[in-house]
Structures are given as C-alpha cells and as structure tokens.
Automatic annotation (TrEMBL), chain A:
Heme b 1; low-spin binds at H58, H345. It is an enzyme of class 7 (translocase). It comes from Candidatus Thiodubiliella endoseptemdiera. Cu cation binds at H205, H255, H256. It is a multi-pass membrane protein. This is cytochrome-c oxidase.
Automatic annotation (TrEMBL), chain B:
The lineage of its organism: Bacteria, Pseudomonadati, Pseudomonadota, Gammaproteobacteria, Candidatus Pseudothioglobaceae. This is DUF1282 family protein. Keywords: Membrane, Transmembrane, Transmembrane helix. It comes from the Bacteria. It comes from Candidatus Thiodubiliella endoseptemdiera. It is a multi-pass membrane protein. It holds the Pfam family Yip1. GO terms for cellular component: membrane. InterPro entries: Yip1_dom.
Length: 479, 189
C-alpha cells in the first residue's frame, strides 16, 4: 500500500486521548484546590497535596497537558488537510506526541515533589525545560516540514497562527528559562531582580497570548469554517488581525507588574499596547461571527458548534476584560484578588476549553470512522453544565475580587487599613463555595464528554487510524 | 406566560418614544434611587465589619451617574440591536430594537430594588437568577420581536449576550476607576 496518498492521523488520535486524560486530571486538581480553599483540612498535612504544590500542578496540567496536547493534535490534523500532504515525518510526530506527555507528566509530578523554579507557568526545573524545548523544536520540524512540502500554494490562516505559536513559544521558553544549573534539580536564573520579573512576565503573558490565544485561534480558524460549511468571511481581515496581534501582544507582559519596581515607561507601554490589542482580537471575533452567519441551523443540529460559538463570546469578553484590567486605576483594585483569577478562567474555560471541546466533538467521529457522536444529548448536557459552571465560577470571583480589592485598600479616618488579612479571607468563603460548585459542574461535563467520546469510538468498530485519502489540489492552486 | 407577553408586545402599536417614556424610563429609575437610599442609609456591606456609609453628596453623585449610565446603556444597546439586525433580522425596525431592550432589561431594573440592601453577597444571590432570566429573555424575545426565524434569533442572541456581558464588565471597570479617584469608599491609593 502506498502510504503517501493517505493522511497520517495516528499521533492525532493518541494526542486527543491524552487531551481528555489531562482534562480530567487537571480539572480534578482544580476542583480539589477549590475545595481546599473552603476546607483547608483537605490537604491532610500531606506536603504533596498542599495548595502551594497542587496549584502549579493544576495550572501546568491544564495548560500544557490539556491545552498543549489539544494544540499539537489539531495542528497535526489541520496542517495536513490545509497543505494536501502527509505529515513531514510521522515518526517524529509520534516522538513529539509521546515526548510531550512524558515531559509534562514528569514536570507536574516533580512540582508535587516540591521541585520548582517558582516562576509562574514556568515552574519546571531545568532538566524538564530542556526536554520540553527539544520536543517543542521537534514539533516545529514536523509542522514547518509539512508546510514546506505542501502541494497547495496559499498558506491557510490557521497555519499562520500555529506557526506563531511554535516560533514564539520556543523563543519565550528558552529565553525565560536560561539558567546556570548547580545540581540535577536546581539552577540559578541568569537574570536578577526586576530584570528577572520583566523577562518572566514577558514570557508569562505571551504564554497566554501565543499558547492560549494564537494556538487556539489556529484551531478555531480550521474548525469553524469546516463546522459551519462556509469559508472564512474575510480572509484579508484574518491575516491583518494576525499581524496586528503578533506585533502588539509581545509588548503587553509588563502590565502584570504595575506599581512595582520596573521602569514606569515600560508599564505605560504595556498598558497602551494592551488597549490596542482589543482591535485585532475583536477583528477576529467579528470575522468569526460573520463566518457563522448563514449556518443558521447548526446551533440546533451540531453540539460541537454550540461550544465554538460560545467560545467566541468568552473570547470577546476576555479580550476586553484583559485590557481593562491592564489600566492602572483598575489594576490597583483588581490585582492580587480573585477578579484576576475569574478573568483567567473566563478565558481558559470559556474560550480555550470550549473551543477545544467543540473541535474534539467535531474531529473524533471523523478520526474513528463513526457517522456521528454516540449521543448528541450527552453533548448537549455537557454544554449546559459547562456553561453554567463557568458562569457561576466567574460571577463568584468577580464579586469576591471586588470585595477583596476594596478591603485590601480601604483605610479609616486615621489612615490605618480598615481590614485585616483574616477579615478578607473570611469574606471570600461564600464565593469560594460558589467557585467550587462552578468548577465541579465544569468537571462533570468533561467526564460526560470523555464517556461520550469513548462510546463513539467503541461503536465505530473501525481499526485505528482510519485512512483518509489526500484529495487532489485544484490545478490553479498547485505548487 | 412570558411567550404570550412577548407576542402581545410584538402585536401592539407604539412608538419608541412611547415605549421608553411610558415604561422603561420609570423602570430605569428604580436601581439608582434604590442605590441612593442603600448607600446613604445602610451602607455597602462587604461581608465583615461595619458597612461603608457614603455621604449625601457622594450618594447623589453616584446615583445620578448610575442613572445616566443606564440611560446611555439602554440607547446604545437598542442601536446595537438595530445594527446587528442587518445581518440577523433584516425586517427589524428601531421600534423592535427598543422592544427587545425593554423586555430584556425589565427584570434587571426591577431587581435593582436589591440596592436598598447593598451587600455584595446578597446581590450575587438575588441578581444571579435575575440575570439568568434576562439571558433567557434575550433568546425568547429576539425571534418574535425582530421578526426573524428561530435559528437566526439564537445566533443574534449569542452576539447580543456577548455585547451585554462586555458592557457589564466595563461598568465594573468604570466603577473601579471611580473608586480610585475618590468617588465611593475611602481607599488608600
């Protein structure tokens, strides 16, 4: 059999399986953390499950385990379809798929054991960083190798976003983690003091920008037109938004460091760029809304489409709220409060997780050769559980964040702080119960989805991977 | 009952001015007036400690700004609906857009009476189901009032939901800026 005439999807299937496993692991850890906030005894005095260790476990498991696996899976799937060619090196793709799982698994396990560089979202110690960098560069070789060997002349916009994800994350990861090792588990960062903070948040916010936004926009730009059965409304707008996004986003990191010892001009640049960033973000949102226009019946008939449409609402909301929180006068209230946590989750759950769920519901029946999902009803229940969960979660944390923000800063007539730290903690307890309820709803939806996907696979009775022939390219677009 | 009321409104003869001044304007008064009495006489309760009482001048100023923001929000939302309808509901008029805003905001404005007891937790508990009802009304009212089919109405409802959520968030941001600049609680900034 001539394999070159078929796409190669086995690594994608494996990565989607891993995506769902990481969703359950990472979201369960999140729900457990939310429980610890209201029932601190739940750490049972076991160091590995104390809040300080479980929290980075949760963030790394959901961002890099769940999000990373989904991004690599969809990049492998879509780059072949948009280039009309098999993956550049299927074997290297498997190395990437397995290497990524091992890297993240070892990384999060080491966090539970107490090994951490203490840099947010870059907590892994140097040996894991090196391994992750090698896997990521291999991902780049597979992706750009496939682009280079494409049979079709234009490079579809989803590939621009995936390409930015790969290049910029490699740059951020390597530069931010530059360190001089002094043992197998510890290293000194090469940056000092405020410089270290600036580099860290240059990395930190661009991890949000290029990992959690550019990558997922790549996923989105592939999935949405396919699901809607319509071309992107304005291809030109999508490319303009891409370049505006890339040029603007890279500057905004220092808005995490307002009112700190970094230079004032840097804070101002970050603030201005954050506001400008609304334009490319909303241009993408407009493009999405207009692309969906016409596929009117899809919301009723396609459960995956519901997730993708709602993900756009949360994308719009988060990309407006983020710049607003970067304004110094708002930031002084919101920073170091639950408001920020609520904002992050409206993006991570409402945007990233929703678009991932929608995409996976779309891809899995195709990948396993099924005619459709095992149960649309279960998918619909998942949708409502997830939507209610995220709404309860963010409303609770908005309220909690505002209360915390005011209490952090309130002073009496003598200029003394009006509230103690304990006062503030006691005030937030009811909101943290709501947060736990919202998180549990979201987690139970993910469990339902996993069951639904398993049953979809089980009823398909196909040997995996399903072979899909590469279609011929229109002669006018051939390279 | 809700569907019947929306249908009744769709079949009624009225102008945007009649709808606004005869109904919505009076409803819009409820939140700022309640907020004034709540802020000045009871004070904002954060959950612990004494409530934060605001002076008469501050309470009046905040209530007036709140009223103006609600009025502006009403008109901007109506105009946005009219703008969106070019894609989703080509037969809709400005009058229909006013009707949608009226239906969607009625529970929220009535819920504004909760401001008489300004506790953050109380507001979350009381207003969450009210916002959920308003969310439902967006989707229930658009197909009927804007004379479009159900599927298009759902799409437009999603867009409008996104717009209103963003407007709500910006109101929170504007409040934070006001607090930092001395309007509201006494903050050490």
């Amino acid at each position: 059999m001539n394999k070159d005439i078929y796409y190669t999807d086995s690594a994608t299937v494996f990565l989607i399986f891993c995506t769902m496993i990481w969703a359950i692991i990472g979201m369960s850890a999140g729900a457990y953390l939310a429980s610890e906030l209201v029932m601190p005894w739940l750490n049972f005095d076991i160091a590995e499950i104390t809040f300080g260790r479980l929290r980075p476990f949760h963030t790394n498991a959901v961002i890099f385990g769940f999000g990373g696996s989904a991004l690599i899976a969809t990049a492998f799937y879509s780059v072949q379809r948009t280039c009309h060619v098999r993956l550049f090196s299927p074997k290297l793709a498997w190395v990437v798929a397995i290497g990524w799982q091992i890297g993240v698994a070892v990384g999060v396990a080491s966090l539970l054991m107490g090994y951490t560089s203490t840099k947010e979202y870059a907590e892994f110690e140097w040996p894991v960083d090196v391994a992750v960098a090698i896997v990521w560069v291999s991902f780049g070789i597979v992706f750009f190798g496939t682009l280079a060997t494409r049979k079709i002349r234009p490079i579809y916009v989803s590939n621009w976003f995936y390409g930015a994800l790969i290049i910029v994350i490699a740059m951020l990861h390597i530069v931010n983690n530059l360190a001089i090792p002094y043992s197998w588990t510890q290293a000194y960062p090469v940056y000092e003091g405020a410089q270290d903070a600036i580099v860290q948040w240059w990395y930190g916010h661009n991890a949000v920008g290029f990992f959690l936004t550019a990558g997922f926009l790549g996923m989105f730009y592939y999935t949405l037109p396919k699901q809607a059965g319509r071309p992107v409304w304005s291809y030109r707008l999508s490319v303009i938004a891409f370049w505006a996004f890339v040029y603007t986003y890279i500057w905004v990191g220092p808005h995490h460091l307002h009112y700190t010892s970094i230079p004032d001009w840097l804070m101002t640049v970050a603030l201005v760029m954050s506001i400008i960033l609304i334009l490319p973000s909303w241009a993408t949102m407009l493009n999405a809304v207009m692309t969906m226009s016409g596929a009117w019946d899809k919301l009723r008939t396609d459960p995956g489409m519901k997730f993708v449409v709602v993900s756009m609402i949360f994308y719009a909301l988060s990309t407006f709220e983020g710049p607003m929180l970067a304004i110094k006068s708002v930031n002084v209230i919101s920073h170091y409060t639950d408001w920020t946590v609520g904002h992050v989750h409206s993006g991570a759950l409402g945007w990233n997780a929703f678009v991932t769920f929608g995409t996976i519901y779309f891809l899995v029946p195709k990948l396993v050769g099924a005619t459709g999902l095992y149960s649309k009803r279960l998918a619909n229940i998942h949708f409502w559980l997830a939507l209610m969960g995220v709404l309860v979660y963010i409303v609770a944390l908005w309220a909690s964040g505002v209360a915390q923000g005011i209490m952090n800063l309130a002073i009496d007539d003598y200029g003394q702080l009006s509230y103690s730290f304990v006062d503030i903690m006691l005030t937030t307890i009811p909101y943290h119960w709501m947060r736990l309820a919202g998180g549990l709803m979201f987690l139970s939806g993910a469990l339902l989805m996993t069951y639904n996907l398993y049953r979809t696979y089980a009823m398909s009775k196909h040997n995996l991977p399903v072979l899909v022939k590469i279609p011929k390219v229109h002669p006018g677009n051939e390279i | 009952m809700i569907q019947k009321s929306i249908k009744y409104l769709a079949d009624s003869q009225y102008s945007p001015a009649q709808l606004f001044f005869g109904f919505s304007f009076w409803l819009i008064l409820i939140p700022p007036v309640s907020a004034f009495f709540g802020m000045h006489y009871h004070g904002w309760s954060l959950g612990i400690g004494d409530p934060i009482l605001l002076s008469l001048t501050e309470s009046i100023a905040i209530a007036i700004f709140y009223f103006l923001a609600l009025i502006a929000g009403f008109f901007i939302t109506a105009l946005t609906i009219k703008w969106m309808s070019t894609v989703y509901a080509p037969k809709a008029t400005l009058k229909d857009a006013f009707a949608v805003v009226t239906v969607v905001t009625t529970p929220i404005m009535l819920g504004g009476i909760a401001h008489l007891y300004p506790s953050i937790l109380f507001h979350v508990i009381v207003l969450s189901p009210i916002f959920a009802l308003s969310g439902y009304l967006i989707f229930a009212s658009i197909p009927v009032l804007l004379k479009t089919d159900y599927d298009r109405g759902i799409f437009m409802g999603c867009s409008l939901f996104g717009f209103i959520s963003t407007a709500g968030i910006s109101l929170l941001g504007i409040s934070a800026i006001a607090w930092v600049h001395g309007i509201g609680p006494n903050l050490g900034v």
